[in-house]
Amino acid sequence: MGIDELFVNVLDGEENHSLGVKLDLELFDEAGRSVLDSRQSGVKDAIIETTREQSYGDLTSISGKLYLKELLVSRINAFLRKPVVRSIHFSSFYLQ
Fold this sequence. Notes:
By secondary structure, the protein is of the alpha+beta class. The protein has four helices and three strands, in the order E-E-H-H-H-H-E. A three-stranded antiparallel sheet has the order 1-2-3.
């Protein structure tokens, strides 16, 4: 299941950077699709808030991106109050 491109401001000290991210969510099963569809705005908010907490420096490294993927899975599933998302794949990820 795909999440449309989101734009988030990311801080680097005093500088503001923009992150554009588009996600593909890998679900545990097809039943999770209806759960995500019904709560998609909250899922997008969780993605934005989680991403906003990251630093620009972290997001430029491979380990920082991998950490973000795991954190997003955890936060989305916590928001949904059950394990729906198995993994996240970035179909688009760019920082300015």
